[in-house]
Design brief:
Layout: E1 2-10, H1 14-32, E2 35-40, H2 45-51, H3 57-64, E3 68-73, H4 77-80, H5 89-99, E4 104-110, H6 123-126, E5 130-136, E6 146-148, E7 155-157, H7 163-178, E8 183-188, H8 194-207, E9 214-219, H9 220-229, E10 236-239, H10 241-255, E11 262-266, E12 271-275, H11 292-304, H12 308-323, H13 340-352, H14 358-368
Parallel strand pairs: 1-2, 1-3, 3-12, 5-10, 8-9, 8-10
Antiparallel strand pairs: 4-5, 4-11, 6-7, 11-12
Helix pairs in contact: 1-11, 1-13, 7-8, 9-10, 11-12, 12-13
The structure holds 3-isopropylmalic acid and manganese (II) ion.
Residues 245, 249 line the site of manganese (II) ion.
Length: 372
Amino acid sequence: MKLNIAVLPGDGVGPEVTNQAIKVLKAIALEFNHSFLFKEAPVGATAIDQHNNPLPEATLELCKSSDAILFGAIGHPKYDNNPSAKIRPEQGLLKLRKELGLYANIRPVKAYDTLLDKSPLKQHIIEGTDITIYRELTGGIYFGEKHLSEDGNTASDLCEYSKHEIERIAHLAFKSAQSRKRKVTLVDKANVLETSRLWRKVVTDLAKNYPDVTLDFLFVDNAAMQIILNPKQFDVILTENLFGDVISDEASVIGGSIGLLASASVGDKYAMFEPIHGSYPQATDKGIANPVASILSAAMLLEHFELHEEAELIKEGVEKSLKLNITTPDLNTTYDNVSTSKVGDFIADFISNPKDTNINFANIHLGQSTII
Ligand code: IPM
Ligand code: MN
């Protein structure tokens, strides 16, 4: 298959983790005779520095003319600490989501058997957890009208949803549930918010088209508690933009590191793949950022194009790296310094030699490393 992939590395650790995903995709292309063409463009704080615009027109054009987008991370502390900055890196990502109509953000959360001891949660609680979060991505409070009074003392953000916006993501969530454990949990705040009541009504009506799927509801405050009390009760979680943002960071604790969580943002025409972690500025260029979320996002990209065998191989490579402790310091208690690019090398090596033995893999890794 021939794919043109737009690469938007962004800020902080974005470039270094994205490089590992590209490395792994190149190994896949070689093994399976695909042709992946990567074209890079600036976004976020990097783009503000270069073009005074977090999403330059040329970047948007590149995304529109590509088959898929691989996104790194966005954000810089100089903006976080300056609430009055008019141009902000995050605007680049939000505009990209809106312009490309990426209304469904899909975030799988899994407890890997080999990492059960890495989560602060008890093993018997998280073991076997396998959740997919469907977060609405182009509506709600993120995109509603914003207002700051002239005296600067009052502010508001409007939260708005239409039936159409709810239906299109709900269909995707139900379809996904059909090939999983056939359960959708709608997370909302219907006891307080009008928008949540609309979500409940629309989703309840739509559920009639999926008689094989069970629908249940949780208020978001309760859901936040249930996710860490008993994560195994969930299959597909469907929720609006802001709740999905919060719930998915929380759910990452189950896997042991936010550095493991990948995501796909899809719409009717375009698709973008990005780790859920942010730009982690303190780690920039230190080689300590976990590239697994970015690499698994690349696997989601392949799945999107029905390249299931290829995606599966990446996931196997990731699992093997976790099993052999070829992981960055967020997860590693055995080796002190397995770098970001070393993890990428290992997984790319696995793709070229998947039949090799565990011991050889450990040796390949240790042999190449100048650090451990
Ligand atoms: C995410 C991020 C973004 C969001 C930020 C960077 C705007 O936290 O993708 O989860 O809030 O959606
Ligand atoms: Mn977030």
